[in-house]
Every structure is written in structure tokens, then in C-alpha cells.
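Trying the structure run again after the queue cleared.
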Amino acid sequence: MGRLALEKGARALLLPMPYFFPYTQDDLACFCATVAAELAAAPILLYNLPRFTTALSVDTVRSLLAEVPNLAGIKDSSESLEILRALSGGPDSRASRIVGDDTVLVPALRERVCDGVVSGVAGVIPELTAFLFDNAAEAGSLQYAAATALLDELIAHLTLFPAPWGLKLVAECRGLAPAAFAQPLSDTRRRQAAEFSDWFQARWSRAEPVASAPARAVL
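Done. C-alpha cells:
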């Protein structure tokens, strides 16, 4: 898959860990080093996604980044800042630190332990994520606090659904794409979806001016 992506013009790759079965850290290190060697022409980000795969440890990440030249950093979706903090400063400072979980974006920006974000929320509300990322220096403002509160509320509602059902509903509410699901929805899920859509449309109509305007100290 990596070779196919590069043939089609990809300039970098994201490497998730093997899924379904549990693996040791030695298994993960061997897997990553082998795949990276086969795709040596491309920079690669490790993908830490403990919700669906075996979690990478700090030591494994640091060792791989030190020993494998084309491993450029990590997208960390662990809901923790442990790895990103460990890569901030010292010999690991060359590594790209990418937040992959929206729940820790604002804390990561506050601690200055991330270089970027790959966000599910940004796929459907890019202006909110861009506002939080670009205006982190204004974190003490009322406007930034309002945008942070919106993200927290949205995440709380999204967690009621299997990922990425809630994001699909947001996309439909915003006119980006109809919400289509791989499996049929029960009556309970249909009711939840309707309630969520009603909440989002009302909440976003009030919040959009906050997330879309330039940051300022006082609203």
C-alpha cells in the first residue's frame, strides 16, 4: 500500500501498527523498521492508535526515531501527551510531533509539544481547529475559551457514536456530504442522530462567528 501511494504521488506516509491482535514492543519495533526500510524513499510518520492497535511506548518510539533514518516523527492518537512531551527537546527534537486526538489538542498547544494536528474534527469543521491552532498565543482570551468549550462539547457528543458516525452527521449538517453508514442504524441510533443534528445546528449557528473571526482579547 505504501508503494502504491508513492506511485500515485504521495510525498510521505503514515504507518499504523498491526491491528486486531496484541503485540509486544519488540514486534512493533521490528515491523516499523522493516516497513520503513522497504519504503526508504519516503518520510514516514509512526501512527500511535491504542484504541485499535497495540500502543507504542516512549522507549520504542525514541529508539525507532534514532535508528531508522526515514522515520520523521509520530502522529499520536493516544489521548496522552507522554510521547509528545518525551520528543520535545534534546536529541528527539528533530521529530515531527503531530497530535492525532482532538481531546488533547489544546493542552498540547498550551505546553508547546506539538508541531501540527491531524484531526477528525478538522475534517468537517476546519475553521475551528485552525482557529485553536493558529491562535494558541491568545489562549487566555474569552474568544479562545469559547472555541475550546465548543470543541469539548462537540467531542462529548461525538463519543456517543462509533467513530466516525458523528463526524458524518456534522458533514451532512454543513452540506459537505450526505451521512452514509456501513451498517443499518437502529431506531435508537436514528433518534440519537436526529437529536445530535438538531443540537449541532443550533450550537454551531451561535459558535461559528467565534471560531471564524480573528482572535482578540475581548469579545
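The radius of gyration is 19 Å. Worth checking whether this holds up in the mutant runs.
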